[in-house]
Amino acid sequence: MSTTISLDSTQLLLVGLLLAALYVGLNPKRQKHPPGPRGLPLIGNLLDMPTHDKWLQCRKWSQEFKSDIIYIKVFGTQMVVTNTLESTLDLLEKRSSKYSGRPRIPMSELMGRGWSLALMPYGDEWRAHRRLAVKGFDAQVVPKFNLTFTRNAHGLLRRLLESPEAWHEHVRQ
């Protein structure tokens, strides 16, 4: 009887995966992407990419799909490749607000670094953080900290001379 339950569970799992794949593949609300080679599930276009001279393969795809802009996906990472200066300028200058942003880095969020200005996505929160950073690093503000910076640097050098083997602890202070 346990083999029947196991077999039924396996069949149910396979049917569920098939339905999910069909839903994703036939969903009309899917994002519209530029043309590009069709990838395999999970690995995407990994096997299509050569180990050297990747730009030659991208140029070949550009000619094959008759488009200056192509779309490829490798292990879930989506990439848009531009093959002409005109298409690059069009995307990066004329439509920059649509395409500007930073990739989400889950590990930085897990480490509690999601607040970092360099890792934060563009938006109102990023603008507020940037405003504070600009005020803090203003040309008139930074010289006020020179004495503090100098004292801390001298203290670090003194500690390094006293116990160089504990350099890691000294740097973290």
Automatic annotation (TrEMBL):
Entry's InterPro entries? Cyt_P450 (IPR001128), Cyt_P450_sf (IPR036396), Cytochrome_P450_fung (IPR050364)
- Keyword Metal-binding (UniProt): yes
What transmembrane ranges does the database entry give?
A: 12-28
Keywords for this protein:
Heme, Iron, Membrane, Metal-binding, Monooxygenase, Oxidoreductase, Transmembrane, Transmembrane helix
Q: Which residues form the signal peptide?
A: none
What Gene Ontology molecular function terms does this protein carry?
Answer: heme binding; iron ion binding; monooxygenase activity; oxidoreductase activity, acting on paired donors, with incorporation or reduction of molecular oxygen
The UniProt family comment states: Belongs to the cytochrome P450 family.
Protein name, as recorded = Cytochrome P450
- Its source organism is Athelia psychrophila
The taxonomy runs: Eukaryota, Fungi, Dikarya, Basidiomycota, Agaricomycotina
